[in-house]
Amino acid sequence: MFVAMENTHCPICQFSATQPIFDNTLLKCPKCGHGWANLQLDQAYLQQLYAENYFKGEEYADYLADKEILQLNFAKRTKQIAAQGFAPKRALEIGCAYGFFYETLKETFPSASYQGYDISAAAISYANEHFGPHFSADNYLETNSDQTYDAIFMWDVIEHLSDPGAFLAKAHKACETGGMLYLTTGDFGALLPKLQGKKWRMIHPPTHLHYFTQKSMTALLQQHGFEPVFYKYPPVYRSLRLIYFALFILNKTPKRFHNWIYERIPKAASIPINTRDIFFVGAKKTTV
User: Fold this and answer.
1) Lower Cβ count inside 10 Å, N or C end of the chain?
2) pLDDT above 90: residue 246
3) Domain for residue 18, yes or no?
4) Does residue 181 lie within any of the structural domains?
5) Residue 159: pLDDT band by 50, 70, 90 thresholds?
6) DSSP 54
7) pLDDT grade for 164, boundaries at 50, 70 and 90
8) Pick from 45, 39, 63: which is nearest to 53 by CA?
C-alpha cells in the first residue's frame, strides 16, 4: 500500500516552507526547486507496481520489443564514459530491469564484472535466463555484501525511489574511493516542464516520486559523498511505437484505429530526440 506522509519538509534541503503544486499532485521546494510526491510505498506495493505489466502496457508499451533502441542509448553513455578515459572493472547497476545494459556494458568494457538489482522478479528472471547469473530481485537496501565497485549505474531509477538518499548512502559504502556514480533522470528545472506544468510526461506518481533539478541533485549527491563531475543533456533515442503509444493509447480509452496504427509501426523504428529535460550525471566518490 502507499500512504501520504505527514512531513512536508523538502527531502533534499529540509526547507520547511514547501508548496503544493498541480492540484496537490506534488510538493515543491522554492529553495532548491525539488519536486516530490509526498507518498510512502511499502515493499509489497512496489513489487505489485513493478510487475510484468509495468513493462508491457502500463508505463512501457513493450520494453522487450524496445531492446535495440534502449541499447542505443546505453551505448552512447558507455562510449562517453570510455572517451573520458575511465574503464570500469567492477560495475553495480541499481534498477537493471531486463539486463539490457549488462550486454551493452560488456561490449564496451568486456573485462568488467557486473552485479544488477531490480525489484521486478519477472525482469530478473528474464535477465538471468538470457545473460547469466548476474542479477538479483533482492531489495538492494537490505542486501549484505562486502563487494565493492568502481562504477555504479542508476539509469532512470532515482525518480522511482521513495528514499533516494538511502540508496545513495548504501551506494557510497559500496563504491570505492575515486569510483564513479552515473545516473539519468528528468530535469524538473528545465524549460519544458516549466512550460507544460502538470502535463509534463514525467509526472506520474506513484511510479515517479521525485523530480530533480540540477541544484537538488547536486545537493543530494554531495550530502552522500559524491561530487558531480558533469551534467550532460544528450539526445535520447525513442521508439516511434512508444511515442505513439504515449500520445494516443496510454491512459486513454482504447481506440481501434490507434491500436491498428500502433501495430503497424516497425518495432526497430526510432528517432533521436533532445528536449533537454533529461540529464546524464557523472559523480565521483570523494569521501571515505
Assistant:
1) C
2) no
3) no
4) yes
5) very high
6) I
7) very high
8) 63
What 3-state class would DSSP assign to 242?
helix
CB-CB contact of 112 with 104 (8 Å): no
Cell 523504428 appears where?
269
- Cα–Cα distances in Å, from 45 out to 114, 206, 288? 28, 10, 35
Omega before 272 cis (within 30°)? no
CATH of the domain at 231: 3.40.50.150
**Would you tell me how many other CB atoms lie within 10 Å of the CB of residue 201?**
15
Higher model confidence: residue 270 or residue 233?
233
Residues 6+ apart with CB under 8 A from 236: 73, 272, 273, 274, 278
* Residue at 125 is within a domain: yes
3-class DSSP state of 232? strand
Question: What range does the domain containing 44 cover?
Answer: 40-285
All three cell numbers of 232: 550532460
Mean pLDDT value across residues 6-19: 91
* pLDDT (mean) for 276-284: 98
Provide the number of structural domains found in the chain: 1
pLDDT digits (tens, 9 = 90+) for 176-218: 999 999 999 999 999 999 999 999 989 999 999 999 999 999 9
Instruction: Give, in order, the Cα–Cα distances in Å from 56 to each of 3, 100, 109, 175, 183.
Output: 26, 16, 30, 33, 24
- Give the pairing of strands 175-186 and 149-155: parallel
- Collect all residues with Cβ–Cβ distance below 8 Å to 260 and sequence separation of at least 6: none
Cα separation of 8 and 18, whole Å? Answer: 7
